[in-house]
Amino acid sequence: MSSAGLPEVTTAPADLPLDGALRGAVRGRVLRPASLVLGAVLVACVALRAAEVQLPPAVQLVPFALSLVVFGLPHGALDHLVPVRMRATARAPLSVFVVVVAYLVLGSATAVLWWAAPLVGFAGFIALTWFHWGQGDLWVRQSVETRPASVPLAVATVVVRGGIPMLVPFVTQPAVYRQVLLDTAGVVRHVPPGDVAAVFQPTVRVAVGVVFAATVLLTVLVEACSARAHPAQRRGFGRDLGATLFLVAFFAVVPAVLAVGLYFCLWHALRHIVRLELLDPASASDLRAGHPVRPFLRFARDAWPVTAIATAMLVALALLRRGDGSPLGVYLALIAALTVPHVAVVAWMDRRQGVWGVRRHRREARRVEG
């Protein structure tokens, strides 16, 4: 521990792309096992659909319940330490103060928006989550897959990968999507179903599905041409294509609440935690050696105080709500307030690490391939 009572965080940002040993370890020992779990869930849900068996709602909520302490809610609990871990400053107390103030200001502004216009707040939450989840997959592309993207392709990666969890359930499971909207906005006040009926009209959903499918197809075609011109990137392109198709199937087949809860924990949050732990030399060394458990235990040790505070905020919100939102709606409303400052921190990380720095990635990819 430091003299300020904070964990020692005087480390350097991980290079992009990662070295070969780290890439292989992250893919093989962290990302692949989590993907296999999601794949098993997809297969099980296909079988249940074939047998015309529905999962009880309580079962579908299990991932969200677990996300209070495992990966989901905690994945942003170290945001206050990020500037020091990236060596942007050596003054840990000031760094913590700045991030905490940013959380208070941005989180409070988000809460005020929800209080005044819950439907607008929900729409903003969906849009920001779309960007943020795509942002997480862009980091994986640039660091783990070493597939440098031009700015248009980087934007397309964010649009496609972030859009799948947001739009596929909207198109394929509209009743569930509508209920989640009403429950979340309903934390503030009752929202009549008629207020959102127009959004869920079949013509709207078909139009959204067609436009998004065309966007995905166009992106895949452009990526395929790029991979054809750069043979060293073909394997990475194949993995990316497989992941995209898998996610589309996952969110189309798996019940929406279960799918989003599992994705939140085992896809998005997991990748962000890996990104954070790569900033710690001891954790990076463990990951390189194929020992992922110790880095996650370190993360849990460092994240539990802020996670406990966030959980207390959730309880307070549940007690103070003035609408008729469900427990899941209360949780999502809290996540919405925390997402805005969290995205700001991650965007700052992207800038510091050069996630959008195309030229740097091309140089580094050539170095790694060579």
Descriptive overview:
The chain is mainly alpha-helical and about 375 residues long. The chain has one domain (about 20-370). It contains 15 helices and no strands. Helix 7 packs antiparallel against helix 9 (about 200-230) and helix 12 (about 280-290) crosses helix 13 (about 295-320).
Number of strands: 0
* Radius of gyration, in angstroms, nearest whole number: 21 Å
**Can you tell me the residue ranges where pLDDT is under 50 for at least 5 consecutive residues?**
1-13
Q: From N to C, what is the helix and strand string? A: HHHHHHHHHHHHHHH
> What is the total number of structural domains?
1
Name the overall outline.
globular
- Let me know the largest β-sheet: none
Q: Please estimate the helix content.
A: over 70%
**Beta content:** under 5%
Euclidean distance between termini CA atoms: 40 Å
For the residues shown, what is the average pLDDT?
A: 88
Structural class: mainly alpha
**Number of helical regions:** 15
What tags apply to this protein structure?
370 residues; mainly alpha; 15 helices; 74% helix; globular
Layout of helices and strands, plus pairs?
Elements: H1 20-50, H2 57-60, H3 62-66, H4 82-85, H5 92-116, H6 118-143, H7 151-172, H8 174-185, H9 202-229, H10 234-253, H11 256-277, H12 281-288, H13 293-320, H14 327-353, H15 358-369
Helix pairs in contact: 1-10, 1-11, 5-6, 5-14, 6-7, 6-14, 7-8, 7-9, 7-10, 8-14, 12-13, 13-14
